Amino acid sequence: MTGRLAIVGLGPGAPALQTPDAAEALAAATDLVGYGPYLDRVPARQGQRRHPSDNREELERARHALSLAAAGRDVALVSSGDAGVFAMASAVFEAIDEGDPTWRRLDVEVIPGISAMFAVAARIGAPLGHDFCAISLSDNLKPWDTVVRRLTAAAQAGFVIALYNPASKARPRQLGDALAILRRFLPADTPVVFATAVTQPDERIDIVALGAADPNRADMRTLVMVGSAATRRIERPGAAPWIYTPRSERTVAR
Ligand code: SAH
């Protein structure tokens, strides 16, 4: 098989935060596959075919990309942020695992990108300086019970928590429920960061206390980062505070 599939993380939005490796794979591709708004971030190139798709059909999109590669095309399948974090790289390997055995002979490469949690962390200070985890609040692919169990364990264990997919029109209630769970285990003054469209023109970042966090602030372009009991705020005159988590902790969260 001569085809190639590059699964490319585009970063959080700003072109400068896309890696040179990603740019190279995008430029070399004969075919671009991905969610429409993500494809729109890739500069047009003559002779290159584009296959935009809907947001929800990830496995189908992965199979489509694999079929194109199997037909000898040089395909770039795009994801936002990092391609392996709640994104298309897993969908591709699921498709290979269950699909046409000849797909195992394809040249598949995953090209990493800057995940939203890293872009958000860099904007506000160093919240991920100690142990942390990432949880997707979408229950399209897992039961809500599992989310509840993980939130509880993460808060009890003292992890800083990056919440991906905190809300969508189809799932308006989940972030409110998640915050209510976290309030049971974390102090009311724990910093919570709502970061929307980070590194994009309409970026908005709000830092609030867990006790006052309003779930309606989040939409599907928002990452919500919840500090641990060790996470600190450095107040600054006339500017947003810096948020950081010290590298060592002497007291353990409850
Ligand atoms: N692979 C992506 C995540 C895809 S899941 C990554 O590594 O970043 C989609 C979720 O990512 C969104 O609901 C939001 O929570 C988060 N996200 C992606 N880009 C973002 C950005 N620029 N600003 C804030 N959150 C973002």
Account of the protein in words:
There is one protein chain. By secondary structure, this protein is an alpha/beta fold. Helix content is 28%, strand content 26%. α6 links the parallel β7 and β8. S-adenosyl-L-homocysteine binds next to β9 and β11.
Compressed to H and E, one letter per element, the order equals EHEHEHEHEHEEHEHEEEEE
Please state roughly what percent of the residues sit in beta strands, choosing from under 5%, 5-15%, 15-25%, 25-35%, 35-45% or over 45%: 25-35%
Number of helices: 7
What is the mean predicted local confidence, pLDDT? 94
Count all strands and give the number. Answer: 13
Low-pLDDT windows of residues: none
Bound molecules: S-adenosyl-L-homocysteine
Strand order of the largest sheet: 3-2-4-1-5
What is the structural class?
A: alpha/beta
Oligomeric status: single chain
Global Rg: 20 Å
- Taking the alpha carbons of the first and last residues, their distance comes to 55 Å
Measured as a percent range, the helix fraction is: 25-40%
Biggest sheet statistics: 5 strands, parallel
